[in-house]
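Project outcomes to date are best conveyed with an example. Our students and postdoctoral researchers have been running inverse folding experiments weekly, and each run begins with a structure described purely in tokens. The record below, which covers 503 residues, was selected by the lab manager from last quarter's runs and is presented without edits.
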């Protein structure tokens, strides 16, 4: 069993090295840790204290000790997360201090310096669980639309049956109302709700109306500085003129970040539609790099540069001033919400149920503002019960889930099962043994795809992995094509033109 006193000294030294505490805080911090560990004594370590690169390197053996001494029970991932967050809470500055530091850095050194420090602290405090994020399988895949980002999501651990059972025993209070509420800041959590004692929020006045939205980071970042901007009120997502104004207000405040919103309808929206929020960060996606392939003019907004983006989904890109883009985006949204074209399978309503909405993404282009408006439709049919403009059955072996904001921009978030399945496919593909794939319960979903690949490639031990990664990228490009309301065909382009004529 590890020396708990040495581990405590290590964690204090780590906090000091990462500027979470000052030199004068060391004894206090140690005593706070001892209290969490249920210890009333302390024995200084004789060995030289080694400072690890990540908090997880110390927290894991500390949790091992805590489990052995009955402080973590049952010994599951969820209970360990609750406990190690209590430990890191010792080093978390109070919200007012974090907000003041952010404001000072913003004023004296600029927005980039402010977010740099805020992001660094979120990582150092283990709020962003960098050790788990590092488990994700990540690569880029060349496609006709540029290099798409592929991620197999290995970061979120599967729920232990003991955790599921414990969660069922928790008396639901409705507090916090959801995972995105500002009330999560500092919340200790329980079996059915993650600990957020090391979470801090930065209030942002996006509209100049004194109603704060809040900046935080995602605990499981999918790209650099993956942030969330959330409403202070627990209100459902609703895309309005104010949404566009807030998105553009965000990139005015933080011009080195992009920001986007999931669509506000089921199927085409994100996983959390119950709380209005955006996602952004400091990353350049393939969609941002995609060129405008056709220019057009908005009659009501002649000064706005408008065009269709060369992208598998149907994207209108606008460039201009903040005020002009707010008005023009709202105008296009209203036109799109009411637009039907049965010839292109687009119906605005089924009875009173709406189908048309937009996924917007905003960024800065020099002094100008830019916004991409991705046209979405969530209509279903008997033939396509999951959605006409949704991944179709032939690609479900790779991606079946909804296409939200992150996917729209060109980053695939794929299920963890794929890591093992792709590895297992290599040997039978090298042997050209299609029957083995067909007979394997874990692999037979890939059989039709494997047959196509065998007709296309000669697999070897050296190239099998890279071919599969490339072809996963090709499948993801097809996923995005299915999600596009206007296909990249002569008929699709004509249909797109019919809508543009209404603008």
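After processing, the design step wrote out the following sequence:
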């Amino acid at each position: 069993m590890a020396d708990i006193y040495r581990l405590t000294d290590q964690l204090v030294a780590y906090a000091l090295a990462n500027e979470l505490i000052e030199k004068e805080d060391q004894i206090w911090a140690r005593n706070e840790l001892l209290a969490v560990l249920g210890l009333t004594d302390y024995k200084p370590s004789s060995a030289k204290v080694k400072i690890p690169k990540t908090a997880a390197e110390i927290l894991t053996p500390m949790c091992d000790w805590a489990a052995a001494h009955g402080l973590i029970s049952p010994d599951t991932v969820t209970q360990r997360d609750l406990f190690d967050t209590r430990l890191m809470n010792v080093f978390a500055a109070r919200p007012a201090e974090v907000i003041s530091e952010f404001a000072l850095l913003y004023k004296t050194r600029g927005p980039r310096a402010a977010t740099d420090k805020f992001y660094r602290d979120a990582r150092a405090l283990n709020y962003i669980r960098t050790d788990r994020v590092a488990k994700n399988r990540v690569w880029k895949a060349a496609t006709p639309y540029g290099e798409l980002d592929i991620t197999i999501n290995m970061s979120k651990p599967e729920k232990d049956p003991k955790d599921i059972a414990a969660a069922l025993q928790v008396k639901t209070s409705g507090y916090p109302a959801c995972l995105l509420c500002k009330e999560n800041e500092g919340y200790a959590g329980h079996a059915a709700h993650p600990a957020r004692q090391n979470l801090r929020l930065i209030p942002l006045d996006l509209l100049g109306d004194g109603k704060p939205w809040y900046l935080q980071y995602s605990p499981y970042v999918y790209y650099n500085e993956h942030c969330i901007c959330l409403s202070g009120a627990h209100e459902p997502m609703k895309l309005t003129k104010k949404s566009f104004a807030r998105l553009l207000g965000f990139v005015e405040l933080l011009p080195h970040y992009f920001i986007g919103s999931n669509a506000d309808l089921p199927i085409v929206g994100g996983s959390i539609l119950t709380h209005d929020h955006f996602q952004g960060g400091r990353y350049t996606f393939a969609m941002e790099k995609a060129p405008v392939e056709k220019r057009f003019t908005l009659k009501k907004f002649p000064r706005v540069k408008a065009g269709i983006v060369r992208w598998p989904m149907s994207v209108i890109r606008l460039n201009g001033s903040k005020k002009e883009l707010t008005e023009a985006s709202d105008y296009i949204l209203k036109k799109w919400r009411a637009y039907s074209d049965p010839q292109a399978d687009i119906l605005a309503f089924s009875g009173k149920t709406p189908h048309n909405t937009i996924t917007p993404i905003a960024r800065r282009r020099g002094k100008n503002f830019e916004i991409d408006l991705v046209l979405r439709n969530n209509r279903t049919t008997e033939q396509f019960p999951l959605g006409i403009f949704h991944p179709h059955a032939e690609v479900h072996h790779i991606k079946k889930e909804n296409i939200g904001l992150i996917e729209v921009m060109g980053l695939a978030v794929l299920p963890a099962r794929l890591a093992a399945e792709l590895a297992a496919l290599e040997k039978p593909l090298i042997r050209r043994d299609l029957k083995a794939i067909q007979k394997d319960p874990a692999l037979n979903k890939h059989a039709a795809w494997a047959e196509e690949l065998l007709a296309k490639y000669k697999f070897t031990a050296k190239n099998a992995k890279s071919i599969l990664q490339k072809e996963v990228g090709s499948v993801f490009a097809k996923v995005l094509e299915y999600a596009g309301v206007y296909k990249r065909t002569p008929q699709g382009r004509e249909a797109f033109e019919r809508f543009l004529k209404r603008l």
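The mean pLDDT is 94. Residues 416-483 form one domain. The training component of this project remains on track.
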